């Protein structure tokens, strides 16, 4: 084996075994020194540093080279690695940041909104709450924060928001602008247009409660985990 062949095989960070070391070693650096090769390596078990000046004949049978180039060189797609790491961070972020939904949303919640969401809603094993604050108290923000937190935890897949007809667009706009949540509208027109076809393409829906019983019957075909109803009276 020539010096050039040895340098090519060891350049990728190989693992070596042989009589020159008392344990398998991982190559840190390799240099040609005339007719010999200088190998700097670290022991895999003891982490001891080794510096050996070896002949080319030593690699013909006395030293076993185990290639580990793909593992050491990190030749994978860096963009995919970053996306995977970011997805893993976001999925687990709620365990380290108790107000993670606030951090990723375009809102500045008031103290009573923070107290309602993080001290009362999310502390319960099962959410069955009625937020009965006065108009203008920020029920949309409370519902949005709760929705984001539950989504990050993997507890919500589908959402139905039942609103007064005049507030439907306001809910859609605020959830999109402040929380990045896109909702489609369910009304008589969309229900009629979907007759006989698939109706599970979108996971988030918002609709008016002009006819609550009819909405309830239509919702029976949409299994969901969270339903919000805004300013229902009577």
Key features of this structure:
234 residues, alpha/beta, five-stranded antiparallel beta sheet, four-stranded parallel beta sheet, 9 helices, elongated
Q: What would you say this structure looks like, in words?
A:
The chain has 234 residues and is of the alpha/beta class. It has two domains: 3-73; 84-229, Rossmann fold, CATH 3.40.50.10810. It is built from nine helices and nine strands. It has helices at residues 3-10, 69-73, 78-92, 100-103, 111-121, 139-152, 168-179, 188-193, 212-219; strands at 15-17, 25-33, 36-43, 49-55, 64-66, 159-163, 184-185, 204-208, 226-229. The chain has a five-stranded antiparallel sheet. Helix 5 (111-121) crosses helix 6. It starts with a helix and ends in a 5-residue tail after the last strand.
Topology:
Elements lengths: L2 H8 L4 E3 L7 E9 L2 E8 L5 E7 L8 E3 L2 H5 L4 H15 L7 H4 L7 H11 L17 H14 L6 E5 L4 H12 L4 E2 L2 H6 L10 E5 L3 H8 L6 E4 L5
Parallel strand pairs: 6-8, 6-9, 7-8
Antiparallel strand pairs: 1-2, 1-5, 2-3, 3-4
How many helices? 9
User: What CATH architecture label of the largest domain applies?
Assistant: 3-Layer(aba) Sandwich
In the predicted model, the low-confidence regions spanning at least 5 consecutive residues are 214-222
Q: What name is given to the CATH topology of the largest domain?
A: Rossmann fold
Largest sheet: 5 strands, antiparallel
Strand/helix succession: HEEEEEHHHHHEHEHEHE
So, the CATH homologous superfamily of the largest domain?
Tandem AAA-ATPase domain
Number of spatially distinct domains? 2
The proportion of strand residues reads 15-25%
Which radius of gyration do the C-alpha atoms yield?
31 Å
Terminal CA distance:
90 Å
- Provide mean pLDDT, rounded: 77
CATH top level of the largest domain is: Alpha Beta
- Give, in spatial order, the strands making up the sheet with the most strands: 4-3-2-1-5
